[in-house]
Design brief:
Chain lengths: 300, 380
């Protein structure tokens, strides 16, 4: 029993990283009906920025909560800019060019960032500085809860709550929902569609950057190709939750993390990746709109 | 139009320049030896250390007049720690550089990818550090300068059961690496024979970063020791996550841990762990001490086992070249096969009929952020 609880804790922590990445996929899909396949690479750049920022700011060897928050902030800002740049350069010129062209561009941007990453950061893995000194915080029965797990979960929950606030309670969030619901109509109502799309990319990229920092904190090996698999998995998580749905991406990410952990813990890690993609196929067959996605009727 | 023409001309000229530079510069009479190495990627220290060791040995050989009166030139081809690329690297060295012999790889999966190329071209190949038995079974042109895993696995199983008094042992291995799969298998075999129980047998994949699920399962099985026969990058992460989960029994491993990165990544988490390897830099043998101090002067770092094996590998090749009296593949192969009683840094090296070097193993303990000699296990 306590074993199961420990595995659930492991899974939720791991899944919260997927959830943060999945949010970026789902938000961009919401406003643009585009799968931004370069999103996993933004997550990689987030982790790399954190690595260099920690060293440049001199906090790499002085673990503290302040150091973590500082690095998190720097990386989120940098990736927000990167997200805006990607949208402006790679997607906006293709607005109205159908759905296939931006999808191919997305793959292009993804490859560009992977290879530029290898060129700039080097192909060797880097080891993320310990921004928190890992220690066992509490032990309830046989369940060990480390401060790292708490930090990852707390940061992820805080960011998701902040996102919910932005989407539900602010003018920008209302504009975003309007564009997502019907972009041409929103434009007619005076919503600056292009600016909303740009803002959506910035928000999504900031969350991906946060995921990169959190993974650096709990699994401190980072390299230029690290975005590939988590990018795909987060895409599965977004589809699982219902692509376009913000709560769906959160639940989908957590669920995928828990499923992966349970499969690894109770079956074998050999099946772990396969299961994630079997889930994708099953959802597309059985419930293509995902857990939270509303079935859409084609407008004629 | 004019602009396009100009761009084309500039591109053409620079391409020609690059091509011209790529081919030239080789001393026309040099004996060219290839090195397939992981100079970058997840196990970069293996390739780099081996390469440094080889270059140091070759420099000494050349200073003493070279082999067959000619200087030896080492051409290193990076495989980025990727299995499939080791084959391509071997092909490049054999076809483009026309090497007389191939040195490398350290990781067994990559040696297994490269070896068929050497065998087909009848170019002798010596792996400095691949310990999986299958490597030299590829063919009679494939050698290794180190012991094999049935021995290494037994060494650590004996160590766990007899010295650490472990009755319940868990295994966590990398099922994508032949090295790790093989070493886990031989460990399992000996440990069971000695009366220990394998209470958990978990696996991961090279490149994984999250191991908490496997470690939680292992923790629930309450082992006395955990055998992790993987490479250093994953080991560092595994050690950290194990400590976070409150696992305080020792982790044991093989020569895949032998890298300064183990300590850089693992930090305090790897303290008190043990692993088997090919040599101890803090051994009091004068031969080892001379090598260590020379290496330190040259590269400013303490040589790890792959550096020592790389050094020995290059010397074995030079010795065989001298005895063969030619660079002809078949004759060179025979000369390497008859290597006997060669005094290397990593011990006395004799090739057995299966083209493996029979050598002692050492067990090192990680203490105070350093690898410390613990004991020697004889191959006899």
């Amino acid at each position: 029993m306590e074993n199961l609880l420990q595995q659930l804790l492991n899974g939720i922590t791991w899944g919260s990283i997927y959830a943060l990445i999945a949010l970026g996929y789902t938000m961009v899909y919401g406003v643009l009906k585009l799968i931004n396949f370069a999103h996993g690479e933004v997550y990689m750049v987030g982790a790399m920025t954190g690595y260099y920022a920690a060293h440049a700011l001199g906090v790499a060897s002085t673990p503290s909560l302040g150091a973590l928050l500082l690095v998190l902030l720097v990386s989120m800002l940098a990736c927000g800019l990167l997200g805006a740049l990607i949208e402006r350069v790679a997607y906006r010129p293709l607005r109205g060019a159908g759905r296939l062209a931006p999808l191919i561009t997305a793959i292009g941007v993804s490859l560009l960032l992977q290879n530029a990453g290898q060129l700039v950061f080097g192909a060797d893995p880097k080891f993320f500085p310990a921004l928190l000194r890992s220690e066992e915080l509490v032990r309830v029965g046989g369940i060990a809860v480390s401060n790292i797990q708490v930090a990852v979960l707390a940061t992820a929950i805080a960011l998701m709550a902040a996102l919910q606030y932005v989407v539900r309670r602010t003018r920008f969030g209302r504009a975003m929902r309007a564009v997502s619901y019907d972009a041409p109509a929103a434009a007619l109502m005076g919503v600056p569609v292009d600016r909303v799309i740009l803002g959506t990319f910035v928000l999504g990229s900031m969350l991906a950057a946060a995921a990169g920092i959190l993974v650096g904190l709990s699994n401190p090996k980072i390299d230029p190709l690290m975005g590939l698999m988590p990018g795909l998995k987060a895409f599965v998580a977004a589809v699982l939750g219902g692509i376009g749905s913000v709560p769906g991406a959160m639940v989908g990410g957590l669920l995928l993390g828990v499923i992966e952990t349970l499969v690894t813990g109770y079956l074998s890690s050999t099946y772990r990746d396969a299961i994630a993609f079997v889930i994708l196929v099953l959802i597309l067959l059985v419930r293509p709109t995902g857990l939270f996605g509303a079935p859409q009727t084609e407008k004629v | 139009m004019r602009g396009a023409w100009l761009t084309g001309a500039v591109c053409g000229a620079s391409l020609a320049f690059v091509l011209a530079c790529g081919g030239g510069e080789r001393a026309s009479n040099a004996i060219v030896v290839g090195h397939v190495a992981s100079m970058t990627g997840d196990t970069a220290t293996f390739g780099r250390s081996a390469d440094q060791g080889m270059r140091m040995a070759i420099e000494k050989i050349n200073a003493a007049g070279g082999a067959l009166g000619k200087p030896i030139e080492l051409v290193t081809e990076d495989d980025r720690s990727v299995t499939e690329e080791a084959r391509t690297a071997a092909q490049k060295l054999i076809q483009r550089d026309q090497v007389v012999a191939l040195l490398g790889e350290v990781a067994s999966s990559r040696s297994l990818a490269a070896a068929p190329e050497a065998q087909r071209a009848q170019v002798p190949m010596i792996s400095p550090g691949s310990t999986n038995p299958k490597v030299t079974e590829v063919g009679d042109y494939v050698f290794r300068a180190c012991f094999i895993d049935p021995f290494q696995g037994a060494v650590m199983a004996r160590f766990a059961v007899e010295e650490l008094q472990a009755k319940r042992v868990a295994i966590l291995f990398d099922f994508k690496q032949d090295y790790s799969v093989g070493l886990a298998e031989f460990f399992r075999e000996t440990a069971t024979k000695l009366g220990a129980e394998i209470v958990a047998d978990e696996r991961y994949t090279s490149g994984d970063i999250e191991f908490r699920a496997q470690l939680t399962t292992i923790r629930a099985a309450k082992p006395d020791a955990i055998f992790v026969p993987g490479y250093y990058t994953e080991l560092g992460l595994i050690a950290k996550q194990a400590r976070e989960l409150g696992i305080d029994v020792p982790l044991l491993g093989g020569d895949g841990w032998d890298s300064e990165k183990t300590i850089e990544i693992g930090g305090a988490a790897v303290e008190g762990y043990y692993f088997s390897t090919h040599y101890a830099a803090d051994s009091d043998s004068p031969r080892v001490q001379a090598f260590v101090s020379e290496f330190q002067t040259k590269y400013g770092a303490t040589p790890d086992a792959m550096a020592a094996l790389g050094y020995d590998t290059a010397l074995i090749l030079a010795d065989a070249l001298a005895r063969a009296g030619t660079t002809d593949g078949a004759k060179l192969r025979d000369a390497i096969a008859s290597t006997s009683g060669f005094e290397g840094v990593t011990g006395k090296i004799s090739m057995d009929p299966q083209r493996n070097a029979r050598k002692d193993a050492v067990v090192l303990k990680i203490a105070g952020g350093k690898f410390r000699y613990h004991k020697t296990v004889s191959a006899e």
